[in-house]
Specification:
305 residues; mainly beta; six-stranded antiparallel β-sheet; 21 strands; globular
Length: 305
């Protein structure tokens, strides 16, 4: 059986897929310009930001790196396993990887006295359901001494999974007058579409989709508070509920963490659902986008990232 490949790069293309049933689809989730990336990270902290971008031979499309302890980057992916492509070096640091907002944890290091071929490929999680997941990478080393370098995450899909992104202007707002548009911040270009919606009240937004999984994308700030969510089916039955923080989780933190995804539900029976999200505490919340996995297994145009 012929093995078919689907690649997502920062230059965004959809590869040809054979008509035969695939063995696996290795799919790349790569850092790059805001409209072609699934990674979110701190973009506007003292010292020029927790993460910066750089290029190097062997790192297709470049990478992001940080020397700040506790700095994180996060993305969505779909598949049954996920590998981290990174750069190791003598001052590479330890890191932790978190699956689905902490459902599983991996501990590793990017420290090698004599680094080998770049990139280094580290398998993080296997045996997953072939659906939407979130992945966060955290520097657990010493600030200024230990660095982590993220090139991309690569997942294996036994059958191709579509991920669709809806930007904030196309979501439904319960009280439109309670929401403003933020387009003038110096870090706003790291948000999808170059803007976010924000509220300082207890307002909600929603999106109705047909599919099997969904996630919400927020912009984090130190005074962001908590957002609660519900996912209901077409009969108004509750299928998922919970809450998550939309504030930067470190004392004294400033700036923003942009494009930060939170998994709401996955492994749902294919059907119509409505996700509703409400600001329940804190001063402000910034909505950036919404992800969902439509029903069926057609290959999407990965260039939407």
């Amino acid at each position: 059986m012929k093995k078919s490949l689907v690649y997502l790069t920062i230059f965004a293309a959809i590869a040809a897929v054979s008509s035969a049933a695939p063995v696996n689809f290795p799919v790349e989730f790569t850092d790059g310009a805001p409209e072609t990336t699934t990674w979110g990270y701190d973009v506007n902290s003292p010292g020029g930001g927790y993460f910066a971008r750089f290029t190097q031979a062997g790192l297709d499309g470049g990478a992001i790196y940080t020397g700040y302890s506790t700095a994180q980057a996060k993305c969505v992916f779909a598949g049954t396993s996920v590998d981290l492509w990174c750069k190791t070096q003598a001052n590479g640091g330890p890191f932790e990887a978190y699956l689905d907002d902490g459902q599983a944890t991996f501990t590793g290091t990017m420290n090698e006295a004599n680094p080998g071929t770049c990139p280094k490929i580290i398998t993080l999680f296997t045996g997953l359901s072939n659906t939407l997941h979130t992945l966060a990478i955290k520097n657990t080393g010493v600030s200024g001494s230990d660095f982590i370098f993220i090139n991309k995450a690569v997942s294996e899909q036994p059958s191709p999974v579509t991920i669709t992104r809806i930007n904030d202007p196309d979501l439904t707002y319960a009280a439109p007058g309670d929401w403003g548009d933020q387009t003038d911040d110096n870090a706003i270009n790291d948000c999808y579409g170059g803007e976010t919606k924000y509220t300082v009240g207890g307002s909600s937004w929603s999106y109705t989709f047909t599919g099997t999984a969904c996630a919400a994308v927020y912009r984090l700030r130190s005074d962001g508070g908590v957002v609660g969510y519900e996912v209901r089916d077409a009969g108004s039955n509750l299928v998922a509920a919970g809450s998550f923080p939309v504030y930067i989780p470190y004392t004294g933190a400033t700036g923003y963490w942009s494009r930060w995804p939170f998994l709401l539900a996955n492994n749902l029976p294919n059907g119509q659902y409505t996700a509703t999200l409400t600001k329940v505490s804190g001063f402000i919340s910034f909505v950036d986008a919404f992800y969902f996995v439509p029903g069926g297994t057609a290959v999407s145009d990965w260039s939407i990232y």
